[in-house]
Amino acid sequence: MSENSPVVAVAHFVLKEKHKAKGAEFEKAYLKYKEAVAAKDGLLRTALLRGIKEPDNFVILTWWRDADAHRTVVGDWQFFTAVSSRFVYLAAITSVHGPVLAGQNAADGLGELAVPSADGLGELAVPSADAAVALTTFTLREGADQQAFEGSFLGHLSFVKGHEGFLGHQLVHSNRETGAYVNIGWWSGPQAYLPVLQSPEMAADAKTMAVHAEVKGGLYKAVVDSARTEVATV
């Protein structure tokens, strides 16, 4: 991927013990962040996710035109102190940012690794307030074959994309850590994804991918999405 490739920043937050009851305050801080990044050159889209079973978990997704646009914002100390510092006060954070290695919406064929759109929407209608996001992180094991992992992931997608309620996905490959990936999977709602999650095929695919990587995942509600106008309730 080139420096001109679109970049997705994925920031995962877990509210600190003393702030577990401050979910509403975190959401308020995000709205300030959303307003601030809207004025930045290169922003494509931003969304706030909140854990369905773990409401103290939040994820901020931000799509940027390219790596330079992203770096300009995260390197702005004034922006950090005015906007992002509130997140650090309320929660512990881990983050991954990088180009989209693979992506498709429900109408696409798998084919080769390809990016259908910079902001993950492509020809897809904007996901509704009922949409769910299955967020999965992969950390390659020491000595793991990167191509073998990517191949097993694409094989898994051939199973997932055939299910009703699958809207689309993006596989983000970290540009800081070559062994770190995040998949953002959009579904029409939690009820569409759960049968897939509980299927024997999913268990088999998870076992195959676990040979190559440590896998962690969660199901989220898109509380705010700049691509739509309404705000979801959790």
Write up what this structure looks like:
The protein has 234 residues and is an alpha+beta fold. It has one domain: Alpha-Beta Plaits. The protein has helices at 23-37, 67-74, 77-90, 146-160, 190-197, 200-212; strands at 7-15, 43-51, 57-64, 91-105, 132-140, 166-173, 180-187, 213-225. Strands 1-3-2-8-5-7-6-4 form an eight-stranded antiparallel β-barrel, surrounded by six helices. The model is unreliable at 106-116 (pLDDT under 50).
Distance between the termini: 36 Å
Total helices: the number is 6
Rough shape?
Answer: globular
- Determine the strand fraction and express it as a percent band: 25-35%
How many independent structural domains?
Answer: 1
CATH class: Alpha Beta
Structural class: alpha+beta
CATH architecture: 2-Layer Sandwich
Give the beta-strand count. 8
Main sheet attributes: strand count, strand direction, barrel closure: 8 strands, antiparallel, barrel
Would you give the CATH topology? Alpha-Beta Plaits
